[in-house]
Design goal:
By secondary structure, this protein is α/β, with parallel strands linked by helices. It contains 15 helices and 16 strands. It has helices at residues 31-44, 79-92, 110-118, 123-126, 184-199, 227-231, 245-263, 278-283, 297-300, 305-318, 338-341, 352-366, 395-400, 447-452, 457-470; strands at 11-15, 48-51, 95-100, 130-131, 154-158, 164-169, 204-207, 268-271, 292-295, 327-329, 370-374, 480-481, 488-493, 496-501, 519-520, 533-537. The strands form 3 sheets. It has an 8-stranded parallel barrel. The chain has a 5-stranded mixed β-sheet with strand order 12-13-14-16-15, with helices on one face. Helix 1 (31-44) runs parallel beside helix 2 (79-92) and helix 5 runs parallel beside helix 7. The longest helix is centred in the middle third of the chain and has 19 residues, at 245-263. The protein is globular, with a radius of gyration of 24 Å. Mean pLDDT is 89; it is low at 506-522 and 524-535.
Amino acid sequence: MNRHHWWRDAVIYQVYIRSFLDSTGDGIGDLAGVRAGLPYLKKLGVDGIWLSPFYPSPQHDHGYDVADYTGVDPVFGDLAEFDLLVDATRRLGIKVLLDIVPNHCSSEHPWFRAALAAGPGSPERARFHFADGRGPDGAEPPNNWHAMFGGPAWTRVTEPDGRPGQWYLHMFTPEQPDWNWREPEVAAEFDRILRFWLDRGVDGFRIDVAAGLFKHPELPDSPDPEADARTRDSVNPLAWNQPEVHDVWRHWRAVCEEYTARDGRERLLVGEVSVPTAREHARYVRPDELHQAFFFDLLGAPWDADAFRKVISEAMQDIVGTGSTVTWVLNNHDQVRTVTRYGEPTPDGSGLGPARARAAALLMLALPGAAYVYQGEELGLPEVVDLPDDVLTDPIFRRTGSRARIRDGCRVPLPWSGQASPFGFTSGAEGVRPWLPQPEWFAEHATDRALADTRSFWHLYRDGLQLRASLTQLGEGTLRWLDTQPGVLAFARDDLVCAVNFGTAPVPAPVAGTPLLASGPCPPGTLPGSTAAWWIDCP
């Protein structure tokens, strides 16, 4: 692996802080808990961690509504604790990425409160998207856009004199007003924020809604106003993926290069980029823009060999052609976990979902480029699909009343040890429970049990990461597709073959109890002439 450009083939572990480990006994994970869990992550073998937002926030969207971009919410700790965490990661050789949210802030942010107080036409309102309403007395929203989390994308304010007034834009919830990046003051403020955290030693940033920031300057009606809400994706071409956004990433890249030039330590920008095609995705990772952007097409692909080959081929053609590497991901804090997405697991934890999730993980680790692992993925955690309505916190549920595509189920606090909740997640006094309830069956996935069982998901991930680090054919590079039987996906990385049986190829399965990860001959007839393979068999 090329260690100078560490990010090109790094494996980064996403830490959803409030659900990782609670050190204070209040039922919510915190920065000190992350620090306590670092030896576990070092043993797993990841190269870095990405921390979910921990900034001061009213938590309407669990920290993605930021009230202060250069502070720490007391529920998670303070800046001194953050500095201790950075120091600890440095000693262990683990990189640290922060989640930064430049598309929108909290309605409690001082600048937004100032905008409400200042009134129409003020410089304070120019930092956001305020506009007069349509219709009699301005009682209708300025355009027909809908928010991604349901409902209209506009909320009307009461002016300082008490009268109904202008409307402001929020592409997610009313508590998350969108910044107006056409206002230079906004860009200057985020420049200050980047430097604040870079000066504290972080290794880079995961950028939330990286295709956002700019809206069409005239804010016209959309021909499909409910597209964002219907797909829960950034597909409104008037609100997302505007050409001006690339200038922001060029500037941010220059800031990172400035810090790298000082000490030789590369800083990383990885974007949450949701655009329709791999070709458009590639525009964000040109040499002077973002280093990487999550490639979500693999996450969204159905369990099918041809579908996987198609999305991998498109990524390798369009993204690698820019000089970047593909950033693969199968799980994150917004998506149904693979164990459930690929097929409901049976009560004993077996079934199609777990087997397919194991196979997909090894496939991802064999692909050229970087990979991101979401906490609990290495434990084989299924989605918690039966949380009671009264404990749900996802604003999508609050805005729509529907449980469809809500995200609480993948955010339930991790099980660390024991046979009953809180499974070592919190050491709080009796009656203090995790912020989301853990089901009884979490005991089967607890970390202590996973570490003791060499057949567990944890050992599969750890062994896969060790192989990835030790085999020079893996990591950064290219792949060559191989002809196979139908239902088998196979490619070569130099002299190493990765082959996945998607469950339809008539080939012998491994002997019961044999790890899914193996180096040796493929089943006869699967890959004619192949003598060595990373062979993954799956129902």
